[in-house]
Amino acid sequence: MQTSFIIPHKGREEMLIQTLESIRKQSVPCTTYEVIIVSQNKAISQSLSAFTESLNFSVIYNDESNTISHSRNVGAANAKGEFLAFLDADVALSENWLAEMQEILNASSHIALVSAMQINSKDAPPLEKIRTALSNAELDTEVSFLPGRNLFLRKSTFNRAGKFPEHLLTCEDYYFTDKVNEIGDLHYTSKAQYVHIGEDKSFIPMWKKEIWRGQSNLASLKGRHIPLREWPSFIVPFAVTLSIVAATVALLLAHTAVALALFILAALPLSAYILRLKKLTGHGVSVGYCACFYLLYFPARAIGTLLGVRGAVGSSTHS
């Protein structure tokens, strides 16, 4: 057995089935890999169990109170493969995904982990295009961290990195890939692709998810070195949000000069982020939509971080 696909799952199965269908269509023989679902559901449907007829497929049940990191670690502990492929339960892989991951990882002793690029779904709305563009800001190069939607590495590297941090509800992928980066390079490639089926399509769900995702921001900083380039992602959401709130209060109190200064203070970093995003998305997304994205994203991240400080971290599905 060369590769073990490990997919934590909780909630609905529709997107998970699409993920499994994309695995079944891989260009390499299905006898070279296994698929392990770590489910936090009570049972699986007949449609899901039918994959046992075409894949080396198994299901491990995990308590619903455990984190996604715990599910990934449970899957890895039961994996028979030399390589581990961690997937979210809402991605569709290109047919060459596994072949390319293996080739890239085997081609260089310096590469410790490989991830494929995100592509848009058919008729993708502007928000999905934004998410995809941000994911692909750096491509065909080494990066400092990677999201956990599709990660490919050796099992020995996984163990050396200390596995996924089970104390974190979110940001666990950034924490883990940062640890892997201490062992070797993280490579983000365009030679294979995936569609994030569960990608944000509208602003309200995005707002809620970003509040939830932000709740482990500070906890994820413990025990790892934070590169200078990562600090703006923690500082800017607070700076912009607090400046806008303070400017609004100053305006209501008729302190026009103070309000203007604060609005300018918020506008400088906000404009830089909006212009960068517009450049990344090209003609597919308007400047106005890019502005709306950050005017919601920054406050949501700030609120989530504050909730995390209070320990008010809620639960969420990762289906």
TrEMBL record:
The chain crosses the membrane at residues 231-251, 257-275, 287-309. It holds the Pfam family Glycos_transf_2. Residues 4-156 form the Glycosyltransferase 2-like domain. The keyword Iron does not apply. Keywords: Membrane, Transferase, Transmembrane, Transmembrane helix. InterPro entries: Glyco_trans_2-like, Nucleotide-diphossugar_trans. It comes from the Bacteria. SUPFAM superfamilies: Nucleotide-diphospho-sugar transferases. GO terms for molecular function: hexosyltransferase activity. This is Glycosyltransferase.
